[in-house]
Amino acid sequence: MKLAWRLLLLACAVWLCAPLLAAQQAARAPWTPRSIEAAGSLIVQEGGRLKPLSTLANFTLLRLSGRRSYTDAQGVRRGAVEFLLDVLYFPKQAAEAPVFLVNDSALLQTLELELPGKQKRDRYSFHELEPGLPRLFALAHDYGALDPKQRSSVQGELVLLAERVDAFLRLNRQESIALIPPDDGGSGEQAQTWLSPAFAFAALSRGETPSAARQRVFAALDAMANTRHEPRVFEARLEQLHEVLGGFAAVREASGSVELERFYYRINALGWSLGSFTIAFLVAAVGWIRPAWHWLHRSCVALCACGTLALVLAIVLRCLIRARPPVSTLYETVLFITAVGVIVALGLEWFNRQRLAASVAAFAGMLGLFIANGYETLDAKDTMPSLVAVLDTNFWLATHVTAITIGYSAGLLAALLGSVYVIAKALRLARVGPEQFRALGGMLYGVLCFGLIFSIVGTILGGIWANESWGRFWGWDPKENGALLIVISQLAILHGRLGGFLREAGVAVAAAAGGCVVAFSWWGVNLLGVGLHSYGFTSGIQSALSSYYGLQGGVVLLGLWAIRRDRRAARAVLAGPASGAAEPPRGRRAA
Predict the structure, then answer these.
(1) Which helix (H) or strand (E) holds 35?
(2) What is the dihedral sign for C-alpha 239, 241, 247, 249?
(3) pLDDT at 434 (0 to 100)
(4) For 53, which DSSP code?
(5) Do the beta carbons of residue 422 and residue 505 sit within 8 Å?
(6) Which of 42, 324, 384, 48 is nearest to 189 (CA)?
(7) Residue spans of the chain under pLDDT 70
């Protein structure tokens, strides 16, 4: 209901903002590189944490457009900080930028808009959508009151578009840029609250008297607005704003982590890591076609090592920026699981030298970072947010969460190794002989044991944490049940191997099936919408999980078929000599 009332009020506010967007008719000069850099390094408070303005700009544009850059009306490619400056100081030009992503053109028919020349999935400008905004917010008010699971695809897309336009208008009104720090020496909530220009000037209009330090900030902001048409002068005024803000203790305290965050995004370690793993996977594929080219295998290992170093660097930087352990959000579990899986696979390659583990490492690294990139794009929110209260404890994040996530990684790596074993066995690949199958079986057994240890330790630590937080060790919560299922499934596989019920191929099939158990515990429980662990972004996860379940189910069926086929062939071989005279060949085999 809160969203519905907000959208209803916003429908009225659109008519107030439309004249403002149309008021700025003069074309602007391009922002100078120094202005873009200086604006991006401003410190703002958003989502309960301090961050550089460039981070806010990037995720805002990602939310609106699905990417971090856009092409303006003149066909020039521009970045997120430029877009934010346009929205603040040249709203007319910003209203012409096609930044609003619409995934289904049927939405335009619902809004009674006719915009020819557009594709089914395309981007639109605020100016193009403006005639349909009253209807958009009226419908979003109605659909926003529905449970998200009950909305149709068009209804869900309509609510999403309304939220995107809302974010654009709030940015234009300077409501979502809290860059005015709290006064030094404040106490309580005032000592932690940063103000946006809109709220600060509203307080002035109510007759509140700001401190002398904040008055200097207001003067600097006013000077920037008055010189927006003069790029070099605007750049100088922006530098003056930095000097004024530097006088606040809150800015000085946060400057170190903010600069480190800008460095993190500037070097794009995750992008380099993804590129390294992708090239490594391609090199590994060629290496299996040309096994005599030994330099391809060495190149694959070297590229995987480079990708792993870049990934570990990204994780370490995130820990330093937020001063917390490596795993605290669903997004960070993807990075950590990928890193652990690749490191373990490279360790297996070091001991076995069969090229199999190196290929698995390249594929796992590439797939994991593709998933992380897709998650970030779909969620379109800051990937280093403030934590919910129950998670805001570094001790348990460093122990329980890290241990259980290592268990997830080992379980998924075992599922991948088992899938490789099954596919190679079923297709009777000539490049994979008995020696490679034995090596795969040994690696699979070791990874299962490794995963079981961390799964058990992580589950027990989770119970202790639950006892401290909720007053009970075990409550049959879906997340707790998922962790227990992982332990039970891995124990069953290892006991089946120990008792002779599962042989090498059977263990591979069971490990492939175990990947579904891990995926359910990792992501699936969030889709249930119940329990104390149902937090985190889940939109679009159901289809991805269903695809994974279907894929692993196909691998299991393929493995069972291959085992049955091989047993029949073995029985036929054993029955042949015992039957005395050879039977005459039949059917096509007679030839």
Answers:
(1) helix 33-40
(2) negative
(3) 84
(4) H
(5) yes
(6) 48
(7) 1-28, 185-191, 388-394, 430, 529-540, 576-591
- Rounded to 5°, the CA angle 513-375-411 comes to 25
Contact 329, 337 (CB under 8 A): no
How far is 181 from 250, CA to CA, in rounded Å? 7
Q: Which helix (H) or strand (E) holds 263?
A: helix 249-267
Q: What is the DSSP string of 506-529?
A: HHHHHHHHHHHHHHIIIIIHHHH-
Provide DSSP, 127-154: HHHGGGHHHHHHHHHHHHTS-GGGS-HH
Q: Where are the alpha helices (DSSP H) in 183-230?
A: 197-205, 212-226
Q: Can you tell me the distance from the alpha carbon of 417 to that of 19, in angstroms, rounded to the nearest whole number?
A: 61
Phi, psi dihedrals of residue 43, rounded to the nearest 5°: -95, 130
State the Cα–Cα distance between residues 326 and 315, nearest whole angstrom: 6
Residue 571, H or E segment: helix 541-578
- pLDDT for the residue 189: 54
Q: Is 333 helix (H, G, I), strand (E, B) or coil?
A: helix
Under 8 Å between Cβ of 414 and 516: no
Q: Could you tell me what percentage of the chain is helix, strand and coil, using 3-state DSSP and rounding each to the nearest 5?
A: 70, 5, 25
Q: Which of 352, 380, 361 is nearest to 80 (CA)?
A: 380
User: Dihedral of the CA atoms 205, 206, 212, 214 (nearest 10)?
Assistant: -70
Tokens of 386: 């403030």
Which tens digits make up the pLDDT trace of 247-305? 999 999 999 999 999 999 999 999 999 999 999 999 999 998 888 888 999 999 999 99
**Pairwise CA distance, residues 139 & 135, whole Å:** 6
Residues, the chain = 591
CA dist 57 and 55 (Å) reads 5
d(CA 330, CA 333): 5
In this prediction, residue 549 carries a pLDDT of 94
